[in-house]
Specification:
This protein is α+β, with helices and mostly antiparallel strands. It has one domain (about 5-195). The protein is about 25% helix and about 20% strand. It has helices at about 5-15, 15-20, 30-35, 45-50, 60-70, 130-145, 220-225, and strands at about 85-90, 95-105, 105-115, 115-125, 160-165, 165-170, 185, 190-195. An eight-stranded antiparallel beta sheet has the order 1-2-3-4-8-7-6-5, sandwiched between helices. The longest helix has 15 residues, at about 130-145. The two termini are about 35 Å apart.
């Protein structure tokens, strides 16, 4: 592993535990795993050993770059931020992820992109205290500041609950056409994580077939798609990973 990638991994982890630290039991539920996705990573030594060169996974890397620019406001993208992204196989709930961390606009930002989701993690501008309504309001105000969202529904439209020791907020949406309509946040009053599905102008709801399952490795599938097709071989996965499920 090149030293520059090792530095990226160390920066990615620096401060992550102090921003949001979920409390999980020995057998966390599916809800807890989903809500805390991106907050619990392997140790630095393991990630340093397993991290892949971003050039070896060009499709996921380009997908991560495009989605980061879609979700995060440009003032929080420092110059050369793309070079701070690292490929982490099976690091996020067993899923491959492209992750990076940088400081821009006076804010430390951490981004993790999996095959289906985008996570943005950072500290709140000021602590919000212990009141759930106050915590949720601070997290929503910070979302409008940090993400490319002009306005969010009033606090009364968000369902609040405690998951893994963190306050989670989500809205009941019959059909989310775009990523910002599927926003979920978690906060402890000091930091916040914002998670969205990779939705762009969907025209119809997906067909649900039971609970979400972890499929083939994103990285492995992308490499297979780049291999020359052989006669009689099975067609590789679709090239555009940005398309909805």
């Amino acid at each position: 592993m090149q030293s520059s990638q090792s530095t990226n991994l160390q920066e990615l982890l620096s401060g992550l535990g102090s921003i949001l630290r979920p409390r999980l039991g020995p057998e966390p539920s599916t809800m807890e795993k989903t809500v805390t996705e991106g907050l619990i990573l392997p140790d630095v030594a393991t990630m340093t050993q397993n991290a892949v060169d971003p050039q070896s996974v060009p499709r996921p890397m380009q997908d991560a770059i495009e989605w980061t620019k879609t979700v995060l406001r440009p003032e929080y993208l420092r110059g050369g931020w793309e070079r701070r992204l690292v490929g982490l196989p099976r690091a996020v709930n067993g899923q491959d992820a492209i992750a990076g961390a940088w400081t821009a606009g006076g804010r430390a930002v951490q981004v993790m992109v999996t095959m289906r989701r985008v996570h943005v993690i950072g500290k709140l501008p000021s602590p919000a205290g212990d009141d759930q309504q106050e915590m949720a309001r601070a997290a929503l105000e910070n979302a409008v500041e940090l993400l490319r969202i002009e306005e969010l529904p009033a606090l009364e439209e968000w369902e609040l609950r405690t998951v893994a020791g963190l306050l989670m907020g989500q809205r009941e949406v019959s059909f989310a056409r775009n990523w910002f309509e599927a926003l979920i946040f978690v906060t402890d009053g000091k930091g916040a994580k914002y998670s969205v599905m990779k939705y762009k102008n969907r025209s119809s709801p997906p067909q649900r077939q039971g609970p979400e399952r972890i499929g083939p490795s994103w990285f492995e599938a992308s490499r297979a798609a780049d291999l020359p097709r052989q006669a009689g071989s099975i067609s590789p996965p679709p090239k555009n990973e940005i398309e909805p499920e």
